[in-house]
Amino acid sequence: MRRVVITGVGVFASTGKNAGDFFDTLVHARSAIRRIRQFDPTPLTVQIAAEIPDYEPTDYFPAKRLDLLDRFSQFGLLAATEAMESSGVQLRDEERPRFGVVAGSGMGGASTFDTGYFNLYAKQATRLHPFTIPKIMHNAATSQICMEFGAQGPSLTTATACSSSGHAIGEAFHMIKFDMADLMLAGGSEAPITFGMIRSWESVRVLAIGNGDPSRACRPFSADREGLVMGEGAAMILLEELEHAKQRGARIYAEISGYGLSSDASHITQLSIDGPARAVRMALAEAQVNPAEVDYINAHGTGTRLNDATETQVIKEVFGDHARRLAISSTKSMHGHTMGATGAIEMVATIQAVDRGVIPPTANYTQPDPECDLDYVPNQAREKAVRVAVSNSFAFGGLNAVLLVRRFE
Amino acid sequence: MDVTQKVVEIIAREQHLDASKITADSTFAELGIDSLDGVNILFALEEEFKLDIPDTVAQNMRSVRQVVDSLTRVLEGKDVSDLVAMAKGETTATTS
């Protein structure tokens, strides 16, 4: 059976513009949630988000290239660039058909949509810019990454809301495992901080308001949690077939050995216990891992009342008594909920926990909730050898993705 | 208004090129303008000159001179049916 390892890691997020800075911020329990700066948020009820600080697109891309890049594609390209550079891989042309990209996005080119519709409806524009379609399409980031790195193999875009990039990494893992490719860049990107998007999310009543103290607004698993906080960013990882990685002497961060996916088939927004539990079990079964071997779960942990209580029940259901012994944390407390990018961003945190033996904490935890009574690694990072870790992604629509990584041995 | 100068300015701006490198004889191919770039330039011209360039006329715009000539005729309200016919002829030729 072909084994798949992670040989490159890239992240561009509010908590850090590269993997090293990103993980340092998490380990120090620093939240990047601030008052929104991309536009004046004063008319909004929710005026906070986890935005990438001091981001100037022209610092990273030539003007001609930028014309065709929505913000979500820019982030995807930046994360992919770090993943490729950190891997040190040098591809020969004949390898390109065995190298693909799977990137997820829940919203696609949200800011291009927002600007275009503002011009159309508010300013009565009679036509929209011809680059509107190539910028907003969900596969724009995937295709831009393919072009940038000459990836000619199996490639696609996943759009399963907040599970998008969990599914992206899982599908890419299987493409290598089942011999369709040798190398895959996989992850996701999202740039959903627009006036229209925040308004839309406000009306679902799942956002934490927290305007007075933004960095403390997102408090997953804590009794006083009030909701999720939206974020933006991207993460991409390079997956590689083990022998391919060994032959070129690649640095191996971790091995990916399990992927579970399932559908709740019950409610469009409210997650079930059964659906996510089946996804976790499927990932464990594929990896041939006993539940008691799992050391760490990077939780979906959105910070809403319902998600965190239900996810706790899911973990108890699958892990039984071991649920009380394993470490669980939600890094969304710091980088916010980056929607279609969140599975990949959290996968990078999970990989680094395995690689470095440090578990990032759940920041802003203030008090236990009887409905959330497990070990959420509150507020302080923990040094602990992590042999096996699981990253959960659940989503509106009930399509769940669970990834399992282990220390490479 | 010098239409040629304006067209050169717009092409330079949209393509992020130095205007001094563009002449009335430059073809789109020479300037590295692909099909999507061409659509973008048309959009910019329509915005600048506040007019609609019909698709059939647009199909004949593959050099600076062709752009200027077609645009001048549209601006002057002249008959462009020969351009339309030419475009249709080309379409027939390529599909047959």
What does this structure look like?
The complex is a heterodimer of chains A (409) and B (96). In chain A, 33% of the residues lie in helices and 18% in strands. Chain A has helices at 19-27, 63-66, 71-87, 110-122, 132-136, 140-149, 164-177, 195-204, 242-247, 274-287, 305-319, 332-335, 342-356; strands at 4-13, 34-35, 48-49, 99-104, 156-158, 183-190, 233-241, 254-263, 296-298, 327-329, 358-359, 382-383, 388-393, 399-406. In chain A, α7 packs across α13 and α10 (274-287) crosses α11. With 96 residues, chain B is mainly alpha-helical. Chain B has one domain (3-95): ACP-like (Non-ribosomal Peptide Synthetase Peptidyl Carrier Protein, Chain A), CATH 1.10.1200.10. Chain B has five helices and no strands. Chain B has helices at 3-15, 35-49, 55-58, 64-75, 81-95. The relative contact order of chain B is 0.15. The chains are: A alpha/beta (409), B mainly alpha (96).
List keywords for this structure.
heterodimer, A: 409 residues, alpha/beta, Peroxisomal Thiolase, Chain A, domain 1, 10-stranded mixed β-sheet, two-stranded antiparallel ribbon, 14 strands, 18% strand, globular, B: 96 residues, 5 helices, 61% helix
CATH superfamily membership of chain B: ACP-like
By DSSP (H or I, 4+ residues per run), the number of helices of chain B equals: 5
Structural class of chain A: alpha/beta
Distance between the termini of chain A: 16 Å
**SSE arrangement of chain B, N to C:** HHHHH
The largest contact between protein chains, plus residue counts on each side, is: A-B, 10 and 8 residues
